[in-house]
Amino acid sequence: MSSNTDPTPQDDAGFANLVQDVKLSSSNPSAVETHLPGVVDRLETALAKFEQDGNDQGSWDQVSNTFQFLADSAREEKARTPIGESQAVALLVQIEALNKQRLPHVDIQALRVLANICVDHEANRNKVLEAGAFETINNILRSSTHPDAVKTACGALLNTTMACEAAQTKVIELGTIESLLEVLKSDDIDENEVSMTIAARVTANLCESDGGSQSVIKLSGINTVVQLLVRTSKDVEGYMDLFDAATDILRAVASKEAAQIAIQKEGLFIPLMEILEHTGISDEGKSEEEKKEDDKKFGETKAALVEVVVSATLADENMVPVFNNKKVMERFLTWLKLSDREDLQTCAALCLGNVARSDDHCVKLVHEYHAVEPLIHVVRKATDLKASHAATGVLRNLALAERNRELMGNAGVIQACFPLLKKDNALPLQANVVGILKRLSTNDGHNTIRIISGREPFETLSSTPNTEGDIETPLSTLVDVIDRSDDFALKSEGTRTLCNLVKVTWGSEGMRGFDTGSITALQQTLNKANVVLPIAAMTRNPKYVVLQNEGVIALTLLVTSPSQDKNAVLDSLVSVEVTPQPDPETTISEEPLDQTKPLTLLESLLSLIKNQDGKCPDEVRTNVCVLLRNALDAASREGEDPAYLTFLKDSGIKDSLTEVLKQLDAESEGGEGKKRPLVRNAIQEVLSRLA
């Protein structure tokens, strides 16, 4: 390099004046653009010198001043584009590569340039990437021991990678996350709080991608973050920003199965649970506005931690070890009893639901962990619908295991849960309760009695039979919600529960221990229009043959049984008024796709027997015939209104079934009829009643 390229004292003075001029004209960014060529020339001269001698302290001081000039200028929005479009960034990267001494005053100003030109500037982020500046930032963060250099490097990463996927990918590839995690391990939080907070923000942003999450997990970053949360939770208000940023990292990785497994394997459940238990903020000395702001922010952070703990119980690999961890499970059960901490109640219930995904766990949760009483406590006391929904979700799971039903019924699950059916603003909660009633009543006479009568099974039901409107029962509440809901799934499951109750009351082994009077009282309660009509409506819906069959079986049992008033099944069979059911797959179009008039119950039953689409199994067709046979027998009974029998005989049943028999005969000639003896015999039995 020739001597005339070396900076002279006059050059230094000129540069100082230039810097001063720009500072004075900072409100006029065009001044920066005017001086940029001189700044670039100066950097080129410095680069050439460092390539010959990288130890000239004076030259490094001048470069630091130059970088500072650019960084200060870039505070102004209009200055960022011209700086980014110049050669300044490329030269900065080349010069920093020669800063083997890691001179902090040079590093800091270089990092400030990169950070400031990328504020709200996507194009400059790409230029920083193209220039290889992320290698520069990574090297400084990895090797510098100067606190301000580390802090500024974290800030540069935050700005340069913000909403820039390509930049984030590059940073992950360079292994920068490892250096960021080292920042989070700092022993002196008070001294390095800002650096740690920014490092946590950057890490959280990087974890939004799979590569970032995988890096954090692989480097035991979850453990690092949890330990940081443990330390800051002792004064969460003092470290609110850091605590919040660290929580964001966990929130970002929580959905990854590898992260969930790491939380379990590294023993982090208890630390996380302790943080949730003991962390809080004080309202002392705050204005109302400040209280609201802090409560909102801290509430969101706590909710994120709850989400992390719940997510960690989702992994299939965690289900057994978490369930077998007595300390964790007992803590969950203790949380269920904390009426003043509904956030913990919700968390505990959701976690218990996640680990109760096998019959074995469901049974042990009831019989060994004794979880039913604490869950009932939540259901009865919770004011937050989230807590109620979580608790009923677990109870719904537990009710699936047959061994649990007796104990759950005896514990009062039905009485505790059924009032929640009135919560029309909480459809998922209603669905949980319907699921509980359906499962607890399956093949269980005692629970069936509790649902129908609202009483305990040992009471003599026939002595003081309930009349409609006397008391609110689980059955009456269920019927009401079926009637007023327009949700297909809720109506269907509710109606299937009614079918369950009918089947158990008429045919369950569990009912044999009760006196005839009590069983008759139960049957009369079920054999009413408010129960029969939704079953008939489900039977009319042709979309699901399985549901139709359940309805057919229930109606068959009901039609020949005692009733206090008119025979509700016969009423439904002779009714010509139909109410369309909500469709599970509503189609929105200018014209309805199906203009067919809804079928009456009788028309629907005959349609099943005819089986014109060939989709109705013979067993279902046979069941329908049994229903029609029983209906005709009931209509012929002494004391029954003769209008029923007259209607049924004149309704076209005979002609329809005769036609089906002819079709079976025709098929028989082709060898198909022999496969349908049940249908043929069942049709003939119906026709014999119509002779």
Automatic annotation (TrEMBL):
Listed InterPro entries: ARM-like, ARM-type_fold, Armadillo, RAP1GDS1
Keywords of the record: Cytoplasm, Endoplasmic reticulum, Mitochondrion
Molecular function as annotated in GO: guanyl-nucleotide exchange factor activity
Statement: the UniProt record of this protein carries the keyword Oxidoreductase: no
ARM repeat placement: 370-413
Any one of the GO CC terms: mitochondrion
Major subcellular location class: cytoplasm
Residue runs in coiled coils: none
Location(s), subcellular: Cytoplasm, Cytosol; Endoplasmic reticulum; Mitochondrion
PANTHER family noted in UniProt: RAP1 GTPASE-GDP DISSOCIATION STIMULATOR 1
Protein name: ARM repeat-containing protein
Organism of origin: Linnemannia schmuckeri
